[in-house]
Amino acid sequence: MQTLNKVFHLQDAHTTVKQELIAALTTFVSLSYILFVNPNILSASGIPKGAAFTVTAIATAIGCFIMGLVANYPVALAPTLGSAAFFAYNVCVGMHVNWQTGLAAVLVASVLFILITVLKLREKVVDAIPKDLKFAISAGIGLFIAFIGLQNGKLIVDNKSSLVGLGSFANHDVWITLFGLVLTVILMSARVPGSIFVGMIITAIFGMVIGQIPMPHGVISTAPSIAPTFGQAVFHLKDINTVQLFMVVLTFLLVTFFDTAGTLIGMTQQAGLVDENGKIPRIGKAFVSDSLAMVEGSILGTAPLGTSVESSAGIAMGGKTGLTAIFVGIFFLIAMIFSPLLSVIPTTVTAPALIIVGVLMAGNLKHINWGDFEIAFPAFLTVVGMPLTYSISDGLALGMIAYPITMVAAKKYKEVSPMMYVLFVIFIIFFLITNMG
User: Which sequence ranges are marked TM in the entry (predicted)?
Assistant: First the structure.
């Protein structure tokens, strides 16, 4: 106990081991859906689902250990659905990049992430982006994730005349998704802890009861091997040799930038870690922690890790120190033995989780200054561009290009940072390279 107090400063934070353990369990239950959703998303890229399950558990555990020990924050680091969706649907499926090369791009972005963090460039670049666009990026990713969930759940399908349309209620998958969505919405509205996880479990049982989801062959087994993915990022570094892939690296870097920085700031504010001057203690160590987590995740074989918004559930239960993150990591390691349950968690079961997470991320829309057109227009392009182009990078580029144009036209060019003009040029080049085919 004294050792734990010395390492995590429990007394100074006015917390106890029991309180941190309860907080960690709450965070784990809220975040555990990532064990099933992340493999489902990554499998679209060709990554074996079993290996992705184990990698998700190990990478999350290591990320939590790093955050807990280095920064002493009650924050969990896990693969983010936005980055996973970009990796699988945009890079691998959309650009026809094999997943091994995609992981190499993530590794390069991760190393660059560490470099700019150590050089303190990360804070400078983040500060250069107007806060309205940061909120728009997060909200846009949320809409994109929700759109993928609606597709996976067969609620939204292809339509020749209008591109998309409502799915058929004759499809059993639609009823499974609707059941899970309504149930999860009720649980979320009732403030039930772990609503997303509980909703997934009950929805899977519902699917088995109506005979649309096969019964699992077991509950506990040895975790699937990570051999298919481990080290592939390193082995395929030589493949990062085209301008297109360099732009992929840049996009991973930018998307992770905004996602993790915004979430981390929000979590530290909720945990009461921000001082009276608005400064966040050990924020540099926290940035280093998630940078290191990105590296280990890419080497193991998953999309970039980032600060988990589900950490807010544990913080709400009293989590105040890195011991919470350590306990979360331990829970994820224990969870590896439950891999047989993957067979009963198809995309129709995880679809409601994607939709709900999209709703939560869309909450950032309220922070955008819609009253000033020169800000509202690029923010709007960013938000709607991601789901409508089915590309996070395209939506990001649209907003980054529009912002300097509208601000200059409004004679507010002095409010635009030099970095924004640099990004303006970079994203124009990005469009010319990726959309000239």
Answer: 21-38, 50-70, 103-121, 133-150, 170-189, 196-215, 245-265, 321-338, 344-363, 375-406, 418-436
